[in-house]
Specification:
Elements (H helix, E strand, L loop, with lengths): L1 H9 L12 E2 L3 H8 L3 H13 L4 E3 L7 E4 L5 E8 L1 H5 L1 H41 L6 H13 L8 H26 L10 H6 L7
Antiparallel strand pairs: 1-4, 2-4, 3-4
Helix pairs in contact: 5-6, 5-7, 6-7
Amino acid sequence: MMLLDTLGAFTQAQDWEEGQRPIVWASNAYLMEQTGFSLSALKRHARRLAENGVISFQDSPNGKRWGRRDAEGRIVEAYGFDLSPLSARVEEFEELQAELQAERELCQRLKRQITVARRMIRARIEAAVSGALRGPWTQFTGLFEELLDRLPRRHHASEQLERLLAWFKELQERVEAAYLKATGAINPVENTDKNDAQAIKPTFSK
C-alpha cells in the first residue's frame, strides 16, 4: 500500500482522465527514498502489485523508465509503472472499501457490546463476593478470566467477536441467575455452594 500510494502521488490529475494512461517513471532511488524500502523489497512489492492486477509494467526498449509531457502536462510518451489496471478497477475497490467499512463498524459495535457484558459480569461477581453470597463465584471468576484472555489484542474478524460476545452473554446469564438466587437466600454464607459449582461447566470452544 505504501508503494502504491507513492506511485499514485507521482501522477497528476490529468493522467487519470479518460483516454489517458497514468504511467509513473519514478526511479528506484526516488521510490526507495520515499518508502524506505531496500531495492530487493521494492522489486518484491512491485511484483506483488503486478501479480494482483493493480499495476502493470510498461517497459521501454532499453529497459529504462522515462517519460515526457506536452505543454498542457499530458503524458506524451512514458515507460515505467502503468497504473491503468488500478483505474479500471475503481468500482471493484469502491465496493471493497464499502465492505471493509461495514465490517469495521460491525466490529466496533460488537466490541462495545462485549465491554458492556464484561462490566456487568465483573460488577455482579464483585458484589456477590463482597456480600458473601452463596454461589460458585470462584468458578465464575475463572471462566471470566478465561474469556478475558481470549479478547483480541489486534484486529479480529467479526465472526470471532460474535463468538466471544455469545460466550460473554452466556456467562452473564449464569452469573445473573446465580446472583438473583443468592440474594433471595435468607442466610448468606461463604461462596462454597458445591451443587452450583458442579453445574457450571465451561462451554467455550476455540
